[in-house]
Amino acid sequence: MLELAHCPAELRPTLEERWRQWCEAAGAERVEQLAAALSAPQAQRALARSFVGSDFFVRQCCRHPDLLPALVDSEDLGLDADWMRTVDEEAELDRALRRLRNRVTAEVIWRDFAGQWDIPRVCRRLSDLAEICIQSALDWHHRDLAARYGEPRDSRGRAQSMVVLGMGKLGARELNLSSDIDLIFAYPEPGETDGERPLENQKFFQRLGQRIIKSLDAVTADGFVFRVDMRLRPYGDSGPLVSHFAAMEDYYQTQGREWERYAMVKARPVAGDRELGAELMELLRPFTYRRYIDFSAIDALREMKGLIQRQVRARGLEDNIKLGRGGIREVEFIAQAFQLIRGGREPALRERSLLKLLPLLERDGHLQPGVAEGLARAYVLLRRVEHGVQAERDQQTQTLPAEEHCRQALAYALGRDSWASLLNDLAAARQLVAREFDMVIAPPEDIAGPSVAEEWQGFWGSCASEASREVNLQSLQRAGFEPAEAALAPVADLHESPMVRSLPNAARERLDQFMPLLLAAAAQEAEPLLALQRVLPLVRAVLRRSAYLVLVNENPPVLSQLLRLCSASPFIADQLARHPILLDELLDSRRLLAPATAADIADELRREMLRVDPEDLEAQMEALRHFKQGQALRIAAQEVTGALPLMKVSDSLTWLAEAILQQALALAWQQVTEKHGEPEGASAEDMRFAIIAYGKLGGLELGHGSDLDIVFVHDANAQGVTGGGERPIDNLSFYTRLAQRLIHILQTRTLSGPLYEVDTRLRPSGNSGLLVTSLGAFEKYQRQSAWTWEHQALVRARPVAGSGRLSGDFERLRLDLLCSQRDEQKLREEVVAMRDKMRAHLDKGNKGSFDLKQGPGGIVDIEFMVQYAALAWAHKAPSIVRYTDNIRILESLQEAGLMSAHQAAHLIDAYKAYRSEGHRLALQQLPGVVDGDQFKAERKTVSTNWQQLFG
Q1: How many C-beta atoms lie closer than 10 Å to residue 591's C-beta?
Q2: How many CA atoms within 13 Å lie on the side-chain side of 246?
Q3: Which of 524, 555, 587 marks a domain boundary?
């Protein structure tokens, strides 16, 4: 009856014999029933491949003759195991688990060889099977033990449940046909059971764990369910079988090793209380994923791979498609290297499934275009061959068969024309994997060849030796370090410092690798000594966090970028020394030096904040600070490299501040409304509250390290109260607390320092006034009580965050106030008087120097002329106060015919020149005072215009 035409001749005897075995076991009636279903060529092909490719499958079909017809007639037999809850006897449970396992294993062999299910679906089904079996065994044995000893409870009487973590392929839902399952057992808290014969929770759960293992692992007449491996638990075989959460957290924090981080990447709760499982995973997350980009993990992966390669050579495992060159393990290492290195900063990379992770790595630029797809194809082929090898006898093997007959059977079962065809495809796949593995895992020197740093290794080792002093000084002089003594002294001090002497071995090895690289790279800079001196404080700062040294050691271009930027700016060097986590910004020079728009910055910040637990205020505040520092570093790098001109630098710093204010306000709103509810008519979309920027922020002229001058306004009903919260308060108190919370978020000094210093003294009545003012009160104050200098400040005021509707109302009010007609003579006198007062108190210049900001003919003189012109003439030319930045106001004055093109151009040029020099000095951490011979032409131009305007 069975059509054999499509089966290779050499395999037909095997097929005929196995078919005969099933026919005898099934009986004539079942064979006849199956005949109709086997009339389709696809069904015959599936049967032939399964019978030829798997002796285990044939044996299961013979033991359970109804299985084969069921597989032919259905698309999925499912995983129903609810009936196990009614099992009374342990032996009956164990038998049911094994029969379910055998049936599901046989089905996935059939579906795979028939081409009905792809490898991801096969792996998911096997993983789901494991979870059901573990959970069924846990439930049955927990009930049985609880009936004898009572329910385990903590010190407060709450019932305790075991949590089972699935590691490795089970955790990633990538279980293969004959895989072990790596498990870790845990429970929440110590305590004891509440029965007549109480047990400590530790003993209860230990017995539960032992029983689960026995139900799954023991070999009976029905076989086994899964081989259980518990060696990944804390302390391995020498540790307790089960641990409570606090003990596990303590172990991983104090004794966890790098390879255990690798194992924990795929960890997932697979049985027991899932909420408690999620809680445990959160406790362990800081161990697995560092908050910084952590290249130290790659050394552990190299060591593991080296060990595996030695085993491969010693045991002749070159044909092992898991452990051999270009095998499954290398694909996994590629993906998990990026997870361990970057998963702390990029939560998306915590994805456990390799096939889902690879496209994410390519999307984020960690893999070259096209590599993810190539690795995925190779991985699927390797896993399919692995399944084919294991399917023959349900044995845990990844070694390609040596016998010709077995090779032909494997190729045929996998739908290939010949063994040679399959082997060629495998060779191509393994070659691709090996190449990409080397790119990711191989040490940089293995890829780049011998390093010029080798000549500096001896120098670093002998730098503190008096006997080698002259030789070392000559080496420094030849390399351009002048004076050589100034380079040798700090390097020798570092080498001999108590901190370096007390470093752990691993950290010392990283430093010993880094210093020759640093010296070699510094010698290539225009000013080697300056470069070295500016980077050494960073080295000292990271000695106890040597993973940062690994980041540089693993990425040679980062060191060049680091030296270049630190040489150009001590501000950048200082920021990196204070916040070494910013080093990861140097990894991608294209991103570092690519200017961003306001929308880019806001979108990137929103994405960063989405990665943070919305309930964790401390983490949110740290995320804001790290984002600000990273963006500020990028902007400074773009400025010193010339990628960003002066005006765009200020724009970028302003956009950054606006984005952070918007996010910080959203956080403050969430916190205050959770406690007090919302004012009537207010919502997160329209808070009836706005932040008004003054000064440099308002004028889009922020510099590095600028404070934020801001004022808060609202337009809610002053007599109203909040609703929906635990503690309603009046609206004015609500908005005051909102502003206070916002200032707290911005100014609090966390581990990463403050976000911004905030100055709110420009609000109505200054420090003696209310922190938050209604728009109506703001208008009344401006019309009736404000000083002239407060109207000058209004020229640079603009809304930057909060209610869009209220911001629009403020804009209209601002224009109305600025366009009011004023007595020009009185205005001129008051502006000049204020300027004279400021110069007397604030000018830091003298006969031989010039204060860029406060000196005569400096920045403030230009600003006061602009503000006077805006206040004096806006009533007849409202267009001159549309903008808040000085340059566009000067351009508007020209367009309105109120200032000559010649005059406006000279003032704009002078203003840009002053600000450019001010920015340069800020990046050099120098005061804004220059030699008196500088900017003479600009100062004369400004002073002449001042005299023309004010007399």
Answers
A1: 12
A2: 3
A3: 587
Q: Write out the residue range of the structural domain in which residue 762 sits.
A: 593-818
Q: Tell me the backbone φ, ψ of residue 357, rounded to 5 degrees.
A: -75, -40
Q: Which residues pair with 802 in a beta bridge?
A: 690
Within this chain, do residues 773 and 668 fall inside the same structural domain, yes or no?
Answer: yes
Place of tokens 């194992």: 263
pTM of this prediction?
0.69
Please check whether residues 645 and 662 belong to one and the same domain: yes
Confidence of residue 309 (pLDDT cuts 50, 70, 90): low
Residue 440 is which amino acid?
Answer: V
Q: Are residues 276 and 150 in the same domain?
A: yes
d(CA 903, CA 913): 16
Q: Which element (helix H / strand E) includes 16?
A: helix 12-26
Read off the pLDDT of residues 239-293 as tens digits, 9 standing for 90 and up: 999 999 999 999 998 888 878 888 899 999 999 999 999 999 999 998 888 776 6
List the beta bridge partners of residue 527: none
* Residue located via tokens 């898991």: 322
| Together in a domain, 620 and 755 | yes
Q: Does any domain span residue 667?
A: yes
For residues 422 and 583, the model is more confident at: 422
Supply φ then ψ for residue 619, to 5 degrees. Answer: -65, -35
Q: What is the CA 228 to chain-centroid distance, rounded?
A: 33
* Residue 8 in domain: no
Q: Is the pLDDT of residue 751 over 90?
A: no
Please answer whether residues 880 and 873 qualify as being in contact, where contact means their C-beta atoms are separated by less than 8 angstroms: yes
Write down the residue that tokens 């000095």 correspond to.
Answer: 921
Domain total in the chain: 5
**Of the candidates 235, 215, 141, 158, the residue with the CA atom closest to the CA atom of residue 192:** 158
Inform me whether the pLDDT recorded for 365 exceeds 90.
no
Q: What is the CATH number of the domain that holds 262?
A: 3.30.460.10
The answer to the question of residue 65 being in a domain is no
Retrieve residue 382's tokens.
């390797």
Residue 523 lies inside a defined structural domain of this protein = yes
**pLDDT digit string, tens, across residues 198-247:** 999 999 999 999 999 999 999 998 999 999 999 999 999 889 999 999 99
- The pLDDT score that the predictor gives to residue 447 is 41
**Matching residue, tokens 């002998």:** 462
How many Cα atoms are found within 13 Å in the side-chain-facing hemisphere of 886? 29
Element (H, E) at 723: strand 722-724
Q: Which residue has the tokens 């903590």?
A: 154
> 830-855 burial, b if ≥16 CB within 10 A, otherwise e?
bbbebbeeebeeebebeeeebbbbbb
The token pair at 351 is 């994805």
Q: Residue 730 carries which DSSP code?
A: B
Q: Which whole-number Å values give the CA distances from 469 to 461, 531, 866, in the listed order?
A: 12, 22, 62
**Cα–Cα distance between 121 and 180 in angstroms, integer?**
19
Q: Given the DSSP bridges, would you call strands 929-931 and 849-851 parallel, antiparallel or unpaired?
A: antiparallel
Q: What angle do CA 685, 688, 689 make, to 5 degrees?
A: 100
Which of the listed residues 783, 818, 853 is the one where a domain comes to its end? 818
What is the residue-averaged pLDDT of the chain? 90
What percent of the chain is modeled with pLDDT above 90?
A: 65
- Domain match, 276 and 322 both: no
Instruction: Please indicate, yes or no, whether residues 576 and 687 belong to a single structural domain of this protein.
Output: no
Cβ–Cβ < 8 Å for 70, 24? no
Same domain, yes or no, for 686 and 673? yes
Q: What percent of the chain has pLDDT over 70?
A: 95
Q: How confident is the model at residue 832 (pLDDT cuts 50, 70, 90)?
A: very high
**Are residues 304 and 280 part of one domain?**
no
Give the range among 100-109, 448-457, 638-647, 671-680 with minimum mean pLDDT.
448-457
> Tell me, what's the pLDDT at 449?
39
Backbone torsions φ then ψ of 400, nearest 5 degrees: -65, 140
Report the pLDDT value the prediction gives residue 5, as an integer from 0 to 100.
55
Each residue of 851-876: pLDDT tens digit?
A: 999 999 999 999 999 999 999 999 99
Both tokens of 478, joined, read 């030849």
